[in-house]
Amino acid sequence: MIKLTNVSKRYPSGNLALDNVSLDIDKGEFVFIVGSSGAGKSTLMRLLLREETPTSGRVIVNGRNVGEMKRRDIPYFRRTLGVVFQDFRLIPTMNVYDNVAFALRATNVSNKDIRQRVPYILNLVGLQGKARSMPEQISGGEQQRVALARALVNNPDLILADEPTGNIDPELSYEIVELLTEINKVGTTIVMVTHEHELVAQFDHRIIQIEKGRLVADTGKIGGHNGRK
User: Fold this and answer.
1) H helices within 4-62, ranges in order?
2) CA–CA separation, 145 vs 183, rounded Å?
3) Residue limits of the ABC transporter domain (predicted)?
4) Dihedral, CA atoms, 190, 192, 196, 199, nearest 10 degrees?
5) Helices (H) and strands (E) in the chain — how many of each?
6) What pLDDT, in 10s, does the model give residues 59-69?
7) pLDDT for 221
8) CA 155 to CA 188: how far, in whole Å?
9) Superfamily covering domain 1-80+157-229
């Protein structure tokens, strides 16, 4: 599902953000990518999203070589992914229902399918009573659940979560990762970038550590959906 082969990324400033990184993430795995600030985690996520291209090496996501992807193909590629950001990125003028439905409307899904799919996903993330609430009317943890619902609503095979617990308290952070774990159990691949080592330690998932642009540790794949069973 994800394959990096000898990937390096050097920015015009001269900063070497990733240095000869190789890794494989199989379908159905749950993988934490950890490291200190500036380690290269965000650069790796930008490569997976095709916001950046590698200076050298190959990045394959969902069978696509992102470095060779034409600009016109990028929006269609991103629609195959579910993406969750640290800052939620909800549309403040839309209620919870419409924030989630927006992801479907962007791909021309019928109104009938939207009316079926959105309530189902909101129920899945525990927000069935918040559909008509505006973003400013709900808590930070609930806003992150809306962001997760939006990532899930297109039923992606792969979810990329970039510091999804960075703006919520530790108890809610645990709940978000628990929810991602439940989603992973049905076969969805989860890649979560985080610097919260204490949170990661509470779950039995594969851990990849990056420091100074290099992959320095990998707990490996032992089978099962989350790679550690």
Assistant:
1) 41-48
2) 13
3) 2-222
4) -10
5) 7, 10
6) 999 999 999 99
7) 57
8) 9
9) P-loop containing nucleotide triphosphate hydrolases (3.40.50.300)
| Domain layout of the chain by residue ranges | 1-80+157-229, 91-155
Question: How far apart, in whole angstroms, are the C-alpha atoms of residue 84 and residue 26?
Answer: 20
Given this model, what pLDDT does residue 40 score? 92
CB 128 within 8 A of CB 119: yes
d(CA 23, CA 79): 23
- Arithmetic mean of pLDDT over the chain: 89
- Which residue is listed with tokens 């439905």? 101
**pLDDT tens for each residue of 122-178:** 998 889 899 999 999 998 889 988 998 998 898 899 999 988 887 777 778 888 899
Q: How many CB atoms lie within 10 A of CB 6?
A: 12
- What are the angstrom distances between the C-alpha of 160 and each of 48, 106, 151, 191? 8, 19, 9, 5
CA distance 88 to 165: 10
pLDDT tens digits for 64-91?
999 999 999 998 898 889 998 878 889 9
- In this structure, the dihedral spanned by the alpha carbons of residues 178, 181, 185 and 189, taken in order and rounded to 10 degrees, is 160
Residues with Cβ < 8 Å from 220, sequence gap 6 or more? 206, 227
